[in-house]
Amino acid sequence: xxxxxxxxxxxYKNGFDPTYSIGLNGIISQDEFREAIEKINRKISFxxxxxxxxxxxxxxxxVGGTCLFTGYVQAHYFGxxxxxxxxxxxxxxxxxxxxxxxxxxxxxxxxxxxRMREAIAEESMKxxxxxxxxxxxx
Length: 138
Hints:
Layout: E1 7-9, E2 14-16, H1 30-43, H2 48-77, H3 85-128
Antiparallel strand pairs: 1-2
C-alpha cells in the first residue's frame, strides 16, 4: 500500500489526512485505512520534548532579558562605568537558550521523521500483499 496522502501542517492539525481515496478500493477497507492513518498520526503526534524546549527558551530569555535590563539600569542610572557583568550573564543566557532551542528542534524533527517513516513502513507492509501492483514503500 502506498500511503502518500497529504501531510497537513498548520496551527491546529499536524498529521496525515484520513480521507479515504477511491484508488484504495479492493486493497484496504475504509476502516483499515482510518486505523492505519490514526496509528501513524499517533506515532508522530505532539512531543512533550517540544514543551520542555519552549519552557527552557522562555525562562532563558526572560532571565537573560532581566539581567540585561538590570545591567542597563546599573550603568545608566547609577553612574557605573563600563559594562556591568550582569549584562554579560544576560547575553550568555539568551544566546544559550536560542542555541538549545535550535538544536532541540533539529533533534526532535529528525526523531519524528524516523518514527513517521517507521510507522508508514509498518502499515505499508501489512497491505502491500493485497495490492494488485507493486507499491513504493517510503
